[in-house]
Amino acid sequence: xxxxxxxxxxxxxxxxxxxxxxxxxxxEDRLRPVYMExxxxxxxxxxxxxxxxxxxxxxxxxxxxxxxxLGGGGLSYVGQALLREVAGSTGSFLAIGCxxxxxxxxxxVQGMTPSLRERLLPPFLRAEISACFALTEPDAGSDxxxxxxxxxxxxxxxxxxxxxxxxxxxxxxxxxxxxAVTDQEKKAAGGVTCFVVEKGTPxxxxxxxxxxxxxxxxxxxxxxxxxxxxxxxxxxxxxxxxYAAMQFLTGGRANIAAMCVGFGEHLTAQFQR
Length: 273
Prior knowledge:
Largest sheet: 4 strands, mixed
Distance between the termini: 36 Å
Strand content: 15-25%
CATH topology of the largest domain: Butyryl-Coa Dehydrogenase, subunit A, domain 1
Shape: globular
Structural class: alpha+beta
Mean pLDDT: 91
């Protein structure tokens, strides 16, 4: 596999670095006292994050991972990792939020039905709405195949029951991408399906926020109690959700690793001063 960067990817990385220097860092410097006083959690900081994320979307950075035919930048996995490394190397706590993560558009949007794409994708790519990736459960963390959330077909709808936890952006998401068992016998091997569950859907509620060691607002629980969603809200094929989840996580782990490399570069530069 070729891990080298082409001229277009290098130019994009330079452009993203300039954006951080020009627009993100000045905002961050102004908000640093608030961040330190509130441990990274305040309405003012969240408002700033949303504003700079929408600005990133205007410039094409936020949706750069998404295929061009869906309105994104069509960036390769190597290019995606490069941008995460750039973000980490700046030492900016807002820069990472300028790129899509669990709350933003990812490869999962390719499996959306035409009606979902038409309604959700334009504002999603503009960072006007956000999502969350709801896979982890109290008894299914690293062993996701042990998930207990169920979805049962009832007429033209599916009825979801279960609890997810440690869900990033769960309390703010306009819709959740929820993984549930639809075939108890097959489970991960063709028995897990991904559903879009929108905020305000009866039977869908946000539970408690969960404490974590890093600063800022923590992840939360999501609860589904006879939550009814239509067939058109399925992402991809029925039963193929586990494979979609693993593809998402594989790309995400590569991006996190690249971001950590960037943070290491930033810290090294600080110590060498």
